[in-house]
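Our consortium's second objective concerns turning raw sequence data into structural hypotheses that experimental partners can test. To show how far this objective has progressed, the report includes one record in full. It was chosen at random from the queue rather than selected for favorable results. The single chain below, 273 residues long, was entered without modification.
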Amino acid sequence: MSHIHIPDGVLHPVLWVSSYLLAIVIIFVLSRKMNMDEARKKVPLAGIMAAIMLITMAIPLGFIPLHFSLAVLCGILLGPGLGFMVAFVVNMILAFFGHGGITVVGLNTLLMGTEVLIGAYLFRILLKNLAIVPRVIIATVIALLISVGLMVAVVSATVGVAEALPHPECSYDHHDHDGYHGHHDHHEHDENYASEANTHIDTDGAGDAETVQTLAEKTAEIHFLNITGWSAVFAILLAGIMLETLVTTLIVRYFAAVRPDMIFDTEISQISN
């Protein structure tokens, strides 16, 4: 769900370079642990999963300013290693379509990869004695909560807490707006976002009082259904988590019924090695 839409030139080079390096190291380590024969068999499925993730991440959830990523589903079906690689490829393609800059691909891979890894390991190891539905629900909810928390922390530390808030009024135009998409995303204005973000960085959060709204003011602007402010923020995130959990559970349950080998064979072969 988590995805940061920050244009190039905002993130400090140390942050985005180290994120790339860490993502590459994780891919290398996971690839060494994979059963390569099983991984090769799942390459077509990996391509399909990547395409589905690209489609879902480009479509907002109607009146909810979020979109699915299905990263947990990716981890469950493909395993942690191949799933993390798919997350990297998906984020690189999204960057070329303007969903954040190239410099944020490493961070987005780590955030989405967190959902892949936590979801896969919880589902396949820690919860393996539970029935299929509670396994998926618990794994998905925990993975999404952790990734959203990390995303908010990164955005808050980089450009300020106010920029990490979901803005429903800005969530439907990917071309005219750019920001961070929380659990499926929240958007900020592209050019204004970049200039405000740089103002935050250059002045250590001082900003121009006439152009940069306070956290309280931005929070008050957020409306969802009949609620506003922080209640609306939490309601938006809760709705996104519940919807992605529901979709992930239904899909995994379907595969467990018609193609159990796609789930349980991967569970044995990719984790035990």
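The partners drew two points from this record. The first strand starts at residue 3 and ends at 4. The CA atoms of residues 179 and 188 lie 4 Å apart. Both points have been shared with the crystallography group to help prioritize constructs.
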